[in-house]
Amino acid sequence: MLTADQLKEKAALRALDLVRDGMRLGLGTGSTAEHFVKALGARVAAGLNVLCVPTSEATRKLAESLNIPLSTLDEIPQLDLTVDGADELDDQLRLIKGGGGALLIEKIVATASKSMVVIADDSKEVAQLGRFPLPVEVVPVGLRATQALIKGMASEAGCDGEIKLRVGRGGEPFYTDQENLILDCHFGSIPEPEVLHFAIKRLPGVVEVGLFLGIADAAFVAGQEGLKVLRSATWEEKS
């Protein structure tokens, strides 16, 4: 019986098979993405030539410690591949991301890539999104007004539940790398993710929504019975 950590590593190593010499890569954030970065570091030490853009300060520090060459989207505005985890994914490759607080840069990097591949253990696969609280990144100014607007717009989109300000380890508000706050929306289920995304994203105080829709091209999902590949209609794995 494989542990959850071993399943994450299995998915990460499968994604590593996609990496070719000379690629420009987006590096995701979170425990599963960390496995990919560590495995990539070993390949770089063995001579692989890549240039990578991290999606968070934590990922940047890890990649630097492994001597993985890093850059920014200002220097390389288009990437070949981004590999990242997900807090939830469904069979249409719709995702909830942002549990690690990096959803804004994760979405920017993923959409700047020719392909985005998700790596996950099978506990992240769901029939309907929403069990995991949906993160919404917001500016600090007018927080309570924005929170109330999100609650109202979400209700109109068929989603109701408690919306909580994320706090850090010391009980103080959690700030993203961009000095924004995160509201975690405990909806339980999201029957129409596209409708909810449109409703919330247009609010002035909202920076980004943790729904990744139409962004992922494939997912490697590791379970006790093996590794499953989910793919979009247009994605073709390069061998």
From TrEMBL:
Substrate binds at T29, G30, S31, T32, D84, G85, A86, D87, K97, G98, G99, G100, K124. GO terms for biological process: pentose-phosphate shunt, non-oxidative branch. Belongs to the ribose 5-phosphate isomerase family. Keywords: Isomerase. Catalyzes the reversible conversion of ribose-5-phosphate to ribulose 5-phosphate. Homodimer. This is Ribose-5-phosphate isomerase A. Pathway: Carbohydrate degradation; pentose phosphate pathway; D-ribose 5-phosphate from D-ribulose 5-phosphate (non-oxidative stage): step 1/1. GO terms for molecular function: ribose-5-phosphate isomerase activity. The active site is at E106 (proton acceptor). It comes from Methyloligella halotolerans. Its EC number is 5.3.1.6.
